[in-house]
C-alpha cells in the first residue's frame, strides 16, 4: 500500500448504519478504511478532512442509494473520485444500495459502466470481493494482529496510551479506572467508554491474567479488586467469569 488508506467510503449520512456494518467487515479483513460517521453539515474542518481522505486512499467505495444520488454534497465526493479514476487510474467500487441500473443510468451514465457490487450480497461477501482486488488475489494476506494494536493492548491491561496527544502523559488501564469523573467517558479503540466499561476491562485483565500484563503494586492490586467488587465484578467469587458481561 502506497497511501495511508486502502479505501475511501463515500456515502450519505442517512445510510450510516449500513455503512458502519460494512466498514467493520472491511476492517476485519485488514483493510485500512477512511470512514467518517458524520452528518453532512459541512464546515471547513470537515471539508479539509474529506479532501485529505480522498487524496490519501488507493480505492474508492461509493455507496449509491436513493438518498446518495439526491444529495449535492455526495456529488462533490463522487466528482473527485471519478476524476481520480480517470486521471490517476484510481479503482472505484460502486455499491448499489436500494437502486437499480436504470436509476444509475439516468443519474450518472459514466458510473453505470463500472461493474457494481450490490448490498443484497451481504457485508461479508462484499468485503471479501473488495479485499480480493486490494490484495491482488493473494490467498494469504499478512495482517497486523490485534495484540499489536496499542489500544487493544491498553484494554487488556498490557500497555499504555498517551492522553490526547502523542506527547501527553502516559496512563494504563488500571490508572484510568481511578481517573476523576470529569475524565469520563474515555475514548479508546474508536468509541467512548464509561467508567463501568473500563472497570469491566480491569476485571477481565485481573481474572484472566497474561504473561505480559502490567505489574501492579500490592496496594494497587487490592484497590482494583475492591473497585471491581463495587461495580458488581467480584473476581474472587466462586464461579465468577467476566465473559458473561459482554
Structure report:
- The protein has helices at residues 16-28, 44-55, 72-88, 101-107, 109-112, 123-134, 150-155, 173-176, 195-208, 218-230, and strands at 5-10, 33-34, 57-64, 91-96, 117-118, 160-162, 170-172, 186-188, 191-193.
- It is an alpha/beta fold and 246 residues long.
- The protein has a five-stranded parallel β-sheet, sandwiched between helices. Strands 6-7 form a two-stranded antiparallel sheet. A two-stranded antiparallel sheet has the order 8-9.
- Helix 9 packs across helix 10.
- Mean pLDDT is 85; it is low at 38-44.
List the helices and strands and how they pair.
Elements: E1 5-10, H1 16-28, E2 33-34, H2 44-55, E3 57-64, H3 72-88, E4 91-96, H4 101-107, H5 109-112, E5 117-118, H6 123-134, H7 150-155, E6 160-162, E7 170-172, H8 173-176, E8 186-188, E9 191-193, H9 195-208, H10 218-230
Parallel strand pairs: 1-2, 1-3, 3-4, 4-5
Antiparallel strand pairs: 6-7, 8-9
Helix pairs in contact: 1-6, 9-10
Notable characteristics:
246 residues; alpha/beta; five-stranded parallel β-sheet; 2 domains; Rossmann fold; two-stranded antiparallel ribbon; 9 strands; 15% strand
Question: How would you summarize what this structure contains?
Answer:
With 246 residues, this protein is an alpha/beta fold. It is 41% helix and 15% strand. The relative contact order is 0.09.
Amino acid at each position: 500500500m502506497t497511501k495511508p488508506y486502502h479505501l475511501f467510503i463515500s456515502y450519505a449520512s442517512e445510510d450510516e448504519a449500513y455503512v458502519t456494518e460494512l466498514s467493520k467487515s472491511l476492517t476485519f479483513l485488514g483493510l485500512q478504511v477512511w470512514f467518517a460517521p458524520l452528518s453532512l453539515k459541512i464546515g471547513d474542518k470537515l471539508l479539509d478532512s474529506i479532501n485529505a481522505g480522498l487524496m490519501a486512499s488507493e480505492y474508492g467505495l461509493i455507496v449509491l442509494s436513493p438518498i446518495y444520488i439526491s444529495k449535492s454534497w455526495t456529488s462533490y465526493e463522487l466528482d473527485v473520485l471519478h476524476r481520480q479514476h480517470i486521471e490517476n487510474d484510481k479503482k472505484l467500487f460502486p455499491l448499489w444500495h436500494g437502486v437499480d441500473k436504470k436509476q444509475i443510468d439516468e443519474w450518472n451514465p459514466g458510473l453505470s459502466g463500472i461493474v457494481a457490487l450490490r448490498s443484497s450480497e451481504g457485508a461479508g461477501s462484499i468485503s471479501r470481493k473488495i479485499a480480493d482486488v486490494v490484495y491482488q488475489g493473494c490467498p494469504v494476506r499478512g495482517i497486523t494482529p490485534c495484540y499489536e494494536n496499542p489500544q487493544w493492548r491498553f484494554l487488556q491491561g498490557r500497555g499504555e496510551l498517551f492522553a490526547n496527544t502523542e506527547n501527553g502523559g502516559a496512563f494504563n488501564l488500571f490508572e484510568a479506572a481511578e481517573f476523576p469523573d470529569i475524565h469520563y467517558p474515555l475514548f479508546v479503540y474508536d468509541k467512548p467508554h464509561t467508567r463501568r466499561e473500563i472497570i469491566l476491562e480491569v476485571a477481565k485483565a485481573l481474572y484472566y491474567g497474561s504473561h505480559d500484563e502490567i505489574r501492579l503494586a500490592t496496594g494497587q492490586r487490592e484497590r482494583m479488586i475492591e473497585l471491581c467488587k463495587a461495580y458488581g465484578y467480584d473476581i474472587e467469587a466462586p464461579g465468577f467469569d467476566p465473559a458473561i458481561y459482554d
